[in-house]
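Checklist before submission:
- one chain only
- standard amino acids only
- sequence pasted in full

Submission:
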Amino acid sequence: MCGRYATTRSAADLSALFSSTDETGGVAADYNVAPTDPVPLVRLAPEGHRLLSLGRWGLLPQWSRSAAGAARMINARAETVATSRAYAPSFARRRCLVPADGWYEWVRLADGGRQPYFMTPRDGSVLAFAGIWSVWESAGAARLTFSVLTTAAVGELAEVHDRMPLLLSPERWAGWLGPAEEPAELLTPPDAGLLAGLEIRPVSRAVGDVRNDGPELIVPVAPAGVGTAAGPTLF
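Returned file contents:
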């Protein structure tokens, strides 16, 4: 977790939802975001106001020699983000919100196949993943990159996968973006109310192919039989 998610709102909608200034020039709906894809995120400008920016999923630390490792840096564990050489500088000074409609996980079936599930708010509201960002420069060009923080899954979500994104309720957005809170407070797991509002929705196996995109990927389907012997597995 988390290796695939959906973000489909327009830049105008996201700017309004997150009280941010759009610097993206527009964003396209993406029902099948994959590592290294460009997607919207919300961060603080040096002047202190919120910016809606476009970043590539897979953080590249400023000291990285190449972009080759970006796909392996899509997630940062909440348990180690404050001490990791790759992530700690961004966690300390460059935190962001990653808007999402929901995220996907796969459960292994008894027949060896995998059933994808889409975790999304029942009421259609926006999710905000806790993220960290960095600007990586190469050959005179700058690239904004980011990672999503993950934490231990709880409740019914743990039946799908043992990890989940660190979800932030709107009351926590300002604290996550700002400099005021201590690491332990920032990394508090999401509250029960937020989690109770999530639907765990079986969806089409077509989402497993990154070339597929469109609203049909998040339409509920009848789930295939799930075998538990192999345990949950990521795609």
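Reviewer check: The first helix runs from residue 11 to 17.
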